From TrEMBL:
Keywords: Membrane, Transmembrane, Transmembrane helix. It comes from Pontibacter toksunensis. It is a multi-pass membrane protein. This is Sodium/solute symporter. Coiled coil: none annotated.
Length: 624
């Protein structure tokens, strides 16, 4: 086997690029003499089936930060990084059942638009600016950087040219065709992404198994890297590179039980429920039922993801540490210099592709990586243009804009976003695990996102001023904790910020009287039922607080104090349910949704139970 790309690899990879580009432009075509409407450009004319919704969600989500970044974290930390994938599958059930139906029923285009309808333009604009900053300076930059890193390792393409290349490629059809082009090319790309990803995993396991097959490889992997097969990381258990030549405690990234009882729920619910470039796929579904089924389908695909993006990282760790460069070179039939080494964790996946995937298949595997990169970038570019156009350009600059003008503005801002990302992305080259960079810096806004959107959806008492001050306090509160407690894991900081924001939103809402209007209470039987649920959540919250206080001293090394987040979440749910049932006044723009909207049929319920059972079993077997 030779190291590097063969002619066949280039042919396969280029063929993939041509097919995707052609498909994106073909789907984007319009009849002669007609222009795309805003609904066609930004919501794919609400034409997506459940399987297209699910495939597009995963294609938008799984990107370079997974193939490169999550594999890098798998190399450094191990299976514990899978918490982001497996708990996301559970979060998707919640989003499908409770969040998305409300958005679809109200005909929402963007998340800031919902905030404007529920609160006011100030809250909407605050979050529009938040999302634009995150998309351009965190998401677009990190994904393009990691994609370029792979191009540099695999093909020798200089980093800056790789960044420009992946951004331009993804921009061509997404800027021209809008969400319709993005979504339908995603259906093809998710097949390539999963198929090519599984091929790389099988070949990596076969290499670890010394050619005796994937099951032998799994056995060797578990034996040789036992410390990498724990889903709960105690303090001081695993040390990982810090990107500056030293090491840091992996507990800082994944603090023990915080991944299941802490603010990772804020990350997952905020990301899957209220993140424009993700939820936009659900908003474009043909119907509420199609959207629900699509998110459930995506949940099962999320369960599969760690086998595609984490296991290869652990395999690279074993191969690097169990064999000398000379032994690997002899097995590969090349030189030790050609095999190379892994200097930073995020180089693990490209190193595997380069060395252990044979010619021809390597082109397919790299096409899978490229599919992940391009599909995510295209979704981010489209959502950036959607938010700017619908939530900033139209209300502030051109209230009477025609559909043609809106589409043109969207295309212009997409180009500007790409140019900014090209400038900023090279600055990430000093990081060891870019995936953790993404999680930490998006974590500055997710507590506020969950509080404002969650309360806006379900609490009749929250007022526009409460939402606005919660939004304003979100980033400063995160920065304050970062400055005053720099050694605190960011997931735990997020939990404390969430608690503070819940207090701010609740106190301001109860103090304000001017926004109140009289509303009809639920009929008595339903009122008793809702109040009963509120008592259950109050009790659950109090019990969680007591247990956390009792156990936190002895089990600080497991991050038990992160469960205060869960206690506050339960109590807040109790407050929301009780006041909705008992208070005959509400904010004048409060949402009172028909309970029928949240009904799900037996197939959905069985599918949801299956996801929860699988996740529960995985945590049971790989807890520690």
């Amino acid at each position: 086997m030779t190291v590097g790309f063969s002619t066949l690899d280039y042919v396969i990879f280029i063929a993939y690029a041509i097919v995707i580009l052609f498909m994106g432009l073909w789907v984007s075509r319009t009849k002669e003499g007609t222009e795309k409407t805003a609904q066609e450009y930004f919501l794919a004319d609400k034409s997506l089936t459940w399987w297209a919704v699910g495939a597009s969600l995963i294609a938008a989500n799984i990107s370079a930060e997974h193939f490169i970044g999550t594999s890098g974290s798998g190399y450094a930390i191990g299976l514990a990084i899978s918490a982001y994938e497996w708990l996301a599958a559970v979060a998707l059930i919640i989003v499908a059942k409770y969040f998305l139906p409300v958005f679809i029923e109200r005909g929402i285009y963007t998340m800031p638009q919902f905030l404007n309808e529920r609160f006011n333009r100030g809250v909407s604009t605050a979050f529009a600016v938040f999302w634009l900053l995150v998309y351009v300076f965190v998401n677009l930059t990190s994904v393009s950087y990691l994609g370029a890193l792979a191009l540099e390792q695999m093909m020798g393409v200089p980093l800056i040219y790789g960044i420009i290349g992946v951004l331009l490629f993804s921009g061509i059809y997404s800027i021209y065709g809008g969400l319709e082009a993005v979504a339908w090319t995603d259906v093809v790309q998710v097949v390539v992404l999963i198929g090519g990803g599984l091929v790389t995993t099988f070949l990596a396991l076969d290499a670890v198994g010394a050619g005796e097959g994937i099951f032998a490889g799994l056995g060797n992997l578990y034996t040789s890297a036992r410390e990498h097969f724990t889903l709960i990381v105690p303090e001081g258990h695993i040390m990982v590179p810090d990107g500056n030549g030293g090491v840091r405690d992996a507990f800082k990234d994944l603090p023990g039980v915080a991944v299941i009882v802490g603010a990772m729920w804020a990350t997952n619910l905020g990301y899957w429920g209220f993140n424009q470039y993700i939820i936009q796929k659900g908003l474009a579904a043909k119907s509420i039922n199609e959207a629900k089924r699509g998110l459930l389908f995506a949940g099962y695909l999320k369960i599969l993801m760690p086998f595609i993006v984490v296991i290869p990282g652990i395999a690279a760790y074993v191969l690097i540490n169990e064999y000398t460069p000379e032994q690997l070179a002899a097995a590969l039939g090349t030189t030790a210099d050609a095999v190379g080494t892994i200097q930073k964790s995020d180089q693990a996946y490209p190193w595997l592709l380069k060395n252990f995937v044979p010619s021809g298949v390597r082109g397919l595997a790299f096409a899978a990586l490229a599919a992940a990169i391009v599909s995510s970038l295209a979704s981010m570019v489209n959502s950036t243009s959607t938010i700017f156009t619908m939530d900033i350009y139209r209300p502030y600059f051109k209230p009477d804009a025609s559909g043609r003008q809106l589409v043109r503005a969207g295309r212009v801002v997409a180009v500007v976003a790409l140019l900014i990302a090209m400038t900023v992305a090279p600055q990430l080259s000093s990081l060891d695990q870019v995936f953790q960079y993404i999680q930490e810096y998006t974590g500055y806004i997710y507590p506020g996102v969950l509080v404002v959107f969650g309360m806006g959806l379900f609490w009749t008492q929250i007022t526009p001023n409460a939402a606005l001050w919660t939004a304003i306090a979100t980033i400063p509160a995160g920065i304050l904790f970062k400055v005053t407690a720099p050694d605190m894991p960011f997931l735990m900081r997020m939990g404390y910020v969430f608690i503070i924001l819940c207090v701010i939103a609740s106190v301001i809402s109860f103090m304000e009287k001017g926004h109140r209007v009289s509303i009809a209470l639920p009929e008595p039987a339903r009122q008793r039922k809702i109040a009963g649920y509120s008592y259950f959540f109050f009790a659950l919250g109090i019990i969680t607080f007591i247990l956390t206080a009792v156990l936190s001293g002895e089990y600080t090394y497991l991050g038990v104090e992160s469960a205060y987040f869960l206690g506050v979440l339960f109590i807040m749910l109790g407050i929301i349910l009780y006041t909705n049932a008992k208070m005959a006044v509400a904010d004048k723009k409060a949402i009172v949704s028909d309970p029928v909207l949240f009904n799900t049929g037996t197939p959905f319920n069985i599918g949801a139970a299956g996801i929860i059972l699988i996740i529960g079993l995985l945590y049971y077997f790989f807890w520690y």
